[in-house]
Amino acid sequence: AEMSSFLDAVRVGDAVTAPSELRTIGAQETIEATLRKLGKHKILSLPVVAKGAASAHKYLGIISAADILLHLLFNEQFVSALEELETEELSIKDFNHDVESLLQAPVKSIIGQRSESKLVFLIRPEAPLSKVVGHFAQGVHRVLIGTNDKPKQHWLFTQSDAVRYLRRHLTHELVAPTARLTLEELGLAAGPKNMVSVSPKDSAAAAFQKLMSTRWTRKSNFDSTGDEKCVWDLSALPILDSKSHVIGTISQSDLRGIKTENLHELLLPVFTFCEKRAGKKISVQVTVTPETTLGEAICKVVDARVHRAWIVDGGRLAGVLSLTDILSRFSTVDFSYLSYYQRSRL
Questions:
Q1: Is 70 in contact with 114 (CB distance < 8 Å)?
Q2: CA-CA distance, 183 to 102, in Å (whole number)?
Q3: 229-266: b or e for each residue (b if 16 or more CB lie within 10 Å)?
Q4: I want to staple 184 with a disulfide (CB 3.0 to 4.6 A). Which of 196, 210, 290, 315 is the partner?
Q5: Residue 164, Cβ neighbours under 10 Å: how many?
C-alpha cells in the first residue's frame, strides 16, 4: 500500500530527466532496413508506424532485434545457409546473398511472432507511475509516453527507466521499508529447479536458439485469447562453466549493432560473439545472494547498466533477479519471473 501510494503520486512524465528522441520505422520498410536502422543507432527496438504523415502516430507494434533474429534462426533457409557457412560450403559473400531474400519482407510481417512485439501502450505523461510499473510487473519491457494529438513528442519509457527512478529514491520513507528487505524475505531468491543455461563452447546461434525457445507463462490481462495467459520469451541466459559458476550472460542486448553484414558472426563461440558486440572483454558478472537487500540489488543493476543480476548461493547459480522481478515488488500487480520460469519448444 505504501509503495502504491508513492508511485501513484509520481507522474510518469516526471520520472525521466531527459527523454531520448523516438526513432520509428515504417510498416512497409523491409526487415533489412529495420536491421540497419537498429544497427546505425545502436538501439534494440523500433516502434512500427502505419504509412502516411496523417497516421504517423498509429503504432502497429514494436519490433526488436530479437524479433528479427527469431524470424531468421527458426527459418529453414537461414539455418541451412548458416550450416553451409560453418562447413565452408558457402563463403560469407554467398551466405549474405542466400539470406538476403529473407530480409526483404516488410517489417510488419513479423509483428506478433513474439507476444510483446504486438503490444503497444501509449501512456499520457500525467498518468501515475504506478500504471506503467503495473505493465512492467507483468513482463512488458517498454511503453510509449505521449498523447495522440502530439505524435512528434512521444518517447519510449523502459523498465530500466523505472528502476533508475527507484534507485534515486531508495531512501524515501515509502520506498525504504521494501528496499531494506532481502531477496529471500521478498520471495525472490528461490530459483527454478532446472535453470536453463548455455556453455561457453556453444555458438552464438545455438545460444540464441536456446534463449528464444525458452518460454515462460503467466496470467495476464493483456492476453485476448480468453485463457488469461500470456507467453513471454526470456531475455537472457547465463553462460556457465563446468562448476555451474556464472562466467557470462547471453541476452537480447548482445544484438545491439547486429546487421546484415555481420550475421555470419552468429557462428562464433558465444563468448567471442558477446565480446565482439560489446567491443570489450566480458567483465565480472553482476551477482547477488539471497541475503542481498532489494535496495542493494537495485544499485548493482542500475550502476552496472544491466537488466538482471544472477543469484548465487554458495558460489553456484541459484536463480536470476530481473527488472520485472524488482518492479513486481513495487506494484500491486505481482508476477515474479522466477515463479513462472519454464521451458518449452517453439
A1: yes
A2: 44
A3: ebbbbbbbbbbbeeeebbebbbbbbbbbbbeeebbbbb
A4: 290
A5: 17
Per-residue pLDDT of 5-40, as tens digits, reads 788 889 999 998 777 788 999 999 999 999 989 888
The cell for 154 is: 512521444
User: Which amino acid is residue 232, in one-letter code?
Assistant: W
Element at 197 (helix H, strand E): none
pLDDT in tens, 122-136: 999 999 999 999 888
150 burial level (CB within 10 Å; 0-12, 13-18, 19+): exposed
Grid coordinates in use for 274? 558477446
User: What letter does residue 110 receive in the DSSP assignment?
Assistant: G
Answer yes or no: are the C-beta atoms of 294 and 326 closer than 8 Å: yes
The pTM (predicted TM-score) of the whole model is: 0.84
Q: How many residues does the chain have?
A: 346
**Continuous H helices in 183-291:** 204-212, 270-278
The dihedral built from the CA positions of residue 226, 227, 230 and 231, taken in this order, carries a sign that is negative
Q: Which letter does DSSP use for residue 37 in this model? A: H
E-only strand ranges, 77-124: 122-123
Helix H or strand E encompassing 23? none
Can you read off the three cell numbers belonging to residue 237? 541466459
Q: Which helix (H) or strand (E) holds 341?
A: none
pLDDT at 1 over 60: no
Q: Specify the residue for cell string 565482439.
A: 276
Q: Hey, what's the cell of 172?
A: 524515501
d(CA 120, CA 15): 20
